[in-house]
Amino acid sequence: MLAIASQAIVPRVATRVIPRRRVPTRAAATSPSSLKPRGVVAQPAKRVAMRPAAVFAASVFAAKDDDDDWEDIDPDDIEFLDGEFVVEAFDDEDQLAKALCAEVEENAKACLAEGSGFTLAVPGGSVAKALAGLKDAKGIDWSKVHLFFVNERVPDGKCYKLAMDTWVSAVGMPDANVHKPDAGGSVEEEAAAYEAQMRTLAEGDDDVMMLDEVNGLPVFDLILLGMGADGHVGSIYPDSDALKDETGAAVLGVDMPGKRSITMSLPLINTAERVVVAASGTKKAETVRAVLEDDESELPGACVDAFSTIFFLDSGAASKLVAYAEEEE
Q: Cβ-count burial of 191 within 10 angstroms (0-12 exposed, 13-18 middle, 19+ buried)?
């Protein structure tokens, strides 16, 4: 049986600030006393939620490195919400795929049970293929699920086509709920139009999606990411403009030789209620180690820092983690 943490489904909250990491380091979260193959590692995190009456810029928090710098902030205007950082290792890719499907099912049902919709973002590649098991999911009203894509080739629509062929058509999700880039312009125009789709949904009256009250970005219920051997997520690559972007945009245009695409920005990804990063194969083992055990890593995968951040690994991808190696001995 897969070990999926029941406490992992975090109720949506109306206002949040993520100033910087004030939680145990990733290395601590994957220490020998924590990480166990096929087990759940949950480290308590603290997320700051501002009351609506208080208006603070996230940059104010980000600039504060010492605890005594917080003395100017009224404690009555801050509440701390428990977040989590979890690493799970599975025997093989098949078990990892089942866990990804379970993530979607459990979080979808939890959100729909609240009487609202469920917003999901998926990438292409191996993660998209792993979701084939959703064809057998029971008890989900797909008419209340809205699907977006973490990144997408333009104008090819490869991620959209893969999702449709793999599971979306089979579950009967309405076409209007499958949001794809279709502006037909430059990558910048495509990015702006795709962000507008998100904001239109968030500004609707049906409570499907909300906007974060601090950074103004759309809040997804669940974002799935695949991490490449170079540490990229979405179309955010190491040392790229997209990684360094500080515009605050939700969606960015990426114009690389032979690869024109749009991608969700890191601020948008990190504003989500829950993000799952999946990696499999020994070719990614060193990157996984750097992302999870090197506090100084600037790889895109290491910059994923949502309120609830989960890493799903197979045994190959986890093989160079110190904790995993010691558990295997």
A: buried
